[in-house]
From TrEMBL:
PANTHER family documented for this protein: CATALASE, CATALASE-B
Family, per entry: Belongs to the catalase family. HPII subfamily.
InterPro entries found in the cross-reference section: Catalase (IPR018028), Catalase_AS (IPR024708), Catalase_clade2 (IPR024712), Catalase_clade2_helical (IPR043156), Catalase_core (IPR011614), Catalase_haem_BS (IPR002226), Catalase_immune_responsive (IPR010582), Catalase_large_C (IPR041399)
Gene Ontology cellular-component terms listed: cytosol
Positions bearing the 3'-histidyl-3-tyrosine (His-Tyr) cross-link: 347-370
Organism: Desulfonatronum thiosulfatophilum
Protein name (database record): Catalase
Bias kind Basic and acidic residues: ranges: 1-30
Enzyme class: oxidoreductase
Highest taxon, organism lineage: Bacteria
Length: 715
C-alpha cells in the first residue's frame, strides 16, 4: 500500500474508547519523575532564582527562571465572550435503531456503535470567575467524534433564543454583560441596560419567560434538558430532506433550585453545579440523556401556525412529537480542565453528511461567528489540532502552516489540483463519503428585512404562561420582582409591564405589584388559550431518587438501627447520604456503633442537599435541639419545599423547629406514619419499611410546592 492508498474515511472504525485512546499519547504523568525544563533538561533547584551573590540581582542567564516565568505570564487565554464558565465530561452516544429513512449520518445508523462524545455545560453571561448558580441560560454543547468527522450539536437548556436574527447578537450580549461604565453587575441580567434592551425588543418576550422560569436556575447539569435551538435539516441517501429540531432529555427529569437557594449557594459553594457533575461521575452516577428529534418534511414547511425557521418559537411537542432515537451516557471526567474543557472548541458548522442547515437567520450568523471566535481565542486556525478537538477520522488537506501547527506533513504537494502528488488528497464523491450540501432552490431580492411570519412575538409567550403550574407561575412572578426590582429607571420598568401586558394581563398585573409601577389600566393579552404541557417542569420525571443527596443530621447518642436501616433503603435506590454534625469525625451511637460526619454546619447547608433525614436517639435529639444550625437546616429545607424525614425521637427536633409552629402542617405529628406535604415521620420506629417507602416517594417528587404557609418559616 503506497502513501496515496491510505484508508479512506469510510473505513475508519470507532468505539466508546477511541477518543480516550487517541488522547493517551498526549497525557503526561509526573509521578516518580524528575522536574525538567520544557526542553527536557533536569532541574536541580526551583526555589530560588540565579543571583550574583545571596543578596545580588537576578541574572538573565537563568534560563529556568525565564522559561518558568514566561510560561506563567502567557498562561491565560482569552475567555469565551459568552459561555465562559463551564464544565465538561466524556462519554458515548448510541442510537437505538437505524435512522436511514431520514438521514445518512453514519453515527445514527448502527445501534452496536458507541460514538465517543465530549459535552461542555456552561453559563452564558458571567465570566470564568462567576458563580454556577446564577439565573442564566445553560449551554449544552456536544461534540460527537464520528467515523465521518466531528459533529457538534451546540445548544442550550432552553429551546428558543432572545433574538431572531444574528445581527442583533452583539447588542444582546452587550446589554446583558456588566454595564461598561462600572463593570457591574457580574453574571446577572438584573440591571437597567439589559431590561432597557429587552423592553424595546418584543421578539424576546417568549425567551424572557423561559429564562425567568425555574429553568433559569437548574438544580444540576444532570437534571436539565438540552435543545439544539435552531432548525437544521436531515438528508437521507435519496436526497429527501426533513427540517429537524434536536432534544436531549435527562433521564433524571428536569429539576430546579429555588431563588433563595441559588443565591445562598453562590456564597456557600460557587462551584455547586460543576462539583455536582464531577462527583456524580466519580461515584458512578453517570448522567444519561435520551436523544430526540422533531421532524417536519420540507413540503410541510408552511402547515403550522409558527414559522419553522423562527428561533424564538418552539415546535410544540403536541403538534410535532419528539421521536426518541438514542441515548448519551457521560462516564468519564476530564484529566485536565484547561487542556480539555477550556480548550474544546464547538462550532455549529461542524456537520457530517446527512445533517445540513436551514435558513434560520440566527443559525446562519452562528455559522460565521463560532469559527471566527475560535481563531482569535485559541491562537490561530490550527486549534483543530489541539487533542480535545482532533477528530478520530483521518485529516488530509493542504493546510500546512499558521500558528501552533502540530502535524508534520510529508511530501512536496500542498495544493489541488496536482499531478506531482498523484492528485491527492482528492475530493470524495457523495458515494465515497464526501459532504454534499442539500440542493435547496434559493432566490430573492437582496433586502434587509424579516419575514412577516416572524412577526408574531407574543402568542407562544402566552402559551408558555398558560402551560405553567401555579407554583411555576409564582416563581416566575418573583423572578420578575427581583430582576425588574433592580432596574433604577422607572420608564424601563413601565415599558416592561406594557410588554408583558401584550402577553397576558394577569402576568403584567402581578409583575407590576412588586416593582413600584402601576398595573396596566386595561388588561391585555393575545387571547391564546392553548397550552403545551411539555414545557412545564411539573410533568417531568419524578419516579427516581438516583443520585439525590440526603443530609442526615446526628449527634452523639443517635439511634444506629434507625439510621442504618433508612440509609440502606435510600442508598439501595441510588441516593447518596452524608452524615452532618456540629463537628466532623466519628460520632458514637447510643449502642456503641459509630458513623463518620463528613461535613459540619460551617461547610454545609440544607441548600446543598435534596432532602433531610433525622434519626432518633434521645441524647442526639436533645443535643440537636440546642444547636441553632440544626434547627436552621430543618426550617430552610421546609421553606424550600424539600422532603424531610424523621423517625423516633427525631420528631421532637421537627417539633422544636418552626415547620409545625408556623408552617402549614398539622399542629403536631401523629404517633403513626405520616406523610404530609413531603414531611414523613413515624414515632414508633420498630418497623421502618413503610416509612422508607413513603420517604423514598417523597424524595422522588423532588419538591412539595403545596406548602401554602412555607414563607412564614424562617430560612
Amino acid at each position: 500500500m503506497n502513501e496515496h492508498q491510505k484508508k479512506q474515511p469510510d473505513q475508519v472504525k470507532i468505539d466508546e474508547n477511541s477518543k480516550n485512546e487517541q488522547l493517551e499519547k498526549y497525557r503526561e504523568d509526573s509521578d516518580g519523575q524528575y522536574l525538567t525544563t520544557d526542553q527536557g533538561v533536569r532541574v536541580s533547584h526551583t526555589d530560588d532564582s540565579l543571583k550574583a551573590g545571596d543578596r545580588g540581582p537576578t541574572l538573565m542567564e537563568d534560563f529556568h527562571f525565564r522559561e518558568k516565568m514566561t510560561h506563567f505570564d502567557h498562561e491565560p487565554i482569552p475567555e469565551r465572550v459568552v459561555h465562559a464558565r463551564g464544565s465538561g465530561a466524556h462519554g458515548y452516544f448510541q442510537v437505538y435503531e437505524s435512522q436511514a429513512d431520514v438521514t445518512m449520518a453514519r453515527f445514527l445508523q448502527d445501534p452496536a456503535v458507541k460514538t465517543p462524545v465530549f459535552v461542555r455545560f456552561s453559563q452564558v453571561v458571567g465570566s470564568k470567575g462567576s458563580a454556577d448558580t446564577v439565573r442564566d441560560v445553560r449551554g449544552f454543547a456536544t461534540k460527537f467524534y464520528t467515523e465521518e468527522g466531528n459533529y457538534d450539536l451546540v445548544g442550550n437548556n432552553i429551546p428558543i433564543f432572545f433574538i431572531q436574527d444574528a445581527i442583533k447578537f452583539p447588542d444582546l450580549v452587550h446589554s446583558i454583560k456588566p454595564e461598561p461604565h462600572h463593570e457591574m453587575p457580574q453574571a446577572s441580567a438584573a440591571h437597567d441596560n439589559f431590561w432597557d434592551f429587552i423592553s424595546l425588543m418584543p421578539e424576546s418576550a417568549h425567551m424572557i419567560l423561559w429564562l425567568l422560569s425555574d429553568r433559569g436556575i437548574a438544580r444540576s447539569y444532570r437534571m436539565m434538558d438540552g435543545f439544539g435551538v435552531n432548525t437544521y435539516r436531515f438528508i437521507n441517501k435519496e436526497g429527501k430532506a426533513h427540517f429537524v429540531k434536536f432534544h436531549w432529555k435527562s433521564l433524571l427529569g428536569v429539576h430546579s433550585l429555588v431563588w433563595d437557594e441559588a443565591q445562598k449557594l453562590g456564597g456557600k459553594d460557587a462551584d455547586f453545579l460543576r462539583r455536582d457533575l464531577w462527583e456524580a461521575i466519580e461515584m458512578g452516577d453517570y448522567p444519561e440523556y435520551e436523544f430526540g428529534v422533531q421532524l417536519i418534511p420540507e413540503e410541510d414547511e408552511f402547515k403550522f401556525d409558527f414559522d419553522v425557521l423562527d428561533p424564538t418559537k418552539i415546535w410544540p411537542e403536541e403538534d410535532v412529537p419528539v421521536k426518541i432515537i438514542g441515548k448519551m451516557v457521560l462516564n468519564r471526567n476530564p484529566d485536565n480542565f484547561f487542556a480539555e474543557t477550556e480548550q474544546v472548541a464547538f462550532h455549529p458548522g461542524n456537520v457530517v453528511p446527512g445533517i445540513d442547515f436551514s435558513n434560520d437567520p440566527l443559525l446562519q450568523g452562528r455559522l460565521f461567528s463560532y469559527l471566527d471566535t475560535q481563531i482569535i481565542r485559541l491562537g490561530g486556525p490550527n486549534f483543530t489540532e489541539i487533542p480535545i478537538n482532533q477528530p478520530l477520522a483521518p485529516v488530509h488537506n493542504n493546510q500546512r502552516e499558521a500558528y501552533h501547527r502540530m502535524t508534520i506533513n510529508k511530501g512536496r504537494v500542498n495544493y489541488f489540483p496536482n499531478s506531482l502528488g498523484g492528485g491527492h488528497p482528492k475530493p470524495a464523491t457523495r458515494e465515497e463519503g464526501g459532504y454534499v450540501h442539500h440542493m435547496e432552490k434559493v432566490e430573492g431580492r437582496k433586502i434587509r428585512n424579516r419575514s412577516e411570519s416572524f412577526r408574531d412575538f407574543f402568542s407562544q409567550a402566552t402559551m408558555f404562561w398558560n402551560s405553567q403550574s401555579d407554583a411555576e407561575k409564582k416563581h416566575l412572578i418573583k423572578a420578575f420582582h427581583f430582576e425588574l426590582g433592580k432596574v433604577e429607571s422607572k420608564e424601563v420598568r413601565e415599558r416592561m409591564i406594557d410588554l408583558l401586558n401584550k402577553v397576558d394581563g394577569d402576568l403584567a398585573t402581578l409583575a407590576a405589584e412588586g416593582i413600584g409601577v402601576a398595573a396596566p389600566a386595561t388588561k391585555g393579552g393575545t387571547g391564546v388559550t392553548k397550552s403545551s404541557p411539555a414545557v412545564s417542569m411539573a410533568g417531568t420525571v419524578k419516579d427516581t431518587i438516583k443520585s439525590r443527596k440526603i443530609a442526615v443530621l446526628v449527634a452523639e447518642g443517635y439511634n444506629h438501627k434507625q439510621l442504618s436501616q433508612v440509609m440502606e433503603a435510600l442508598e439501595g435506590k441510588g441516593a447518596r447520604c452524608k452524615i452532618i454534625s456540629k463537628n466532623m469525625g466519628m460520632i458514637k451511637s447510643s449502642d456503641g456503633n459509630e458513623v463518620v460526619a463528613v461535613k459540619n454546619y460551617e461547610t454545609s447547608a440544607s441548600v446543598m442537599f435534596d432532602a433531610i433525614f433525622v434519626p432518633g436517639g434521645a441524647k442526639s435529639i436533645e443535643t440537636l435541639k440546642m444547636q441553632g444550625d440544626a434547627i436552621g437546616f430543618i426550617n430552610e429545607a421546609y421553606r424550600h419545599c424539600k422532603p424531610i424525614g424523621a423517625t423516633g425521637e427525631g420528631l421532637d427536633l421537627l417539633m422544636e423547629s418552626d415547620i409545625f409552629k408556623k408552617g402549614s402542617l398539622s399542629d403536631s405529628p401523629p404517633e403513626e406514619l405520616m406523610n404530609e406535604k413531603g414531611v414523613v415521620t413515624v414515632r414508633n420506629a420498630s418497623s421502618l419499611s413503610s416509612f422508607n417507602e413513603e420517604f423514598i416517594k417523597a424524595i422522588a417528587a423532588h419538591r412539595h410546592w403545596d406548602r401554602p404557609e412555607k414563607d412564614k418559616v424562617p430560612a
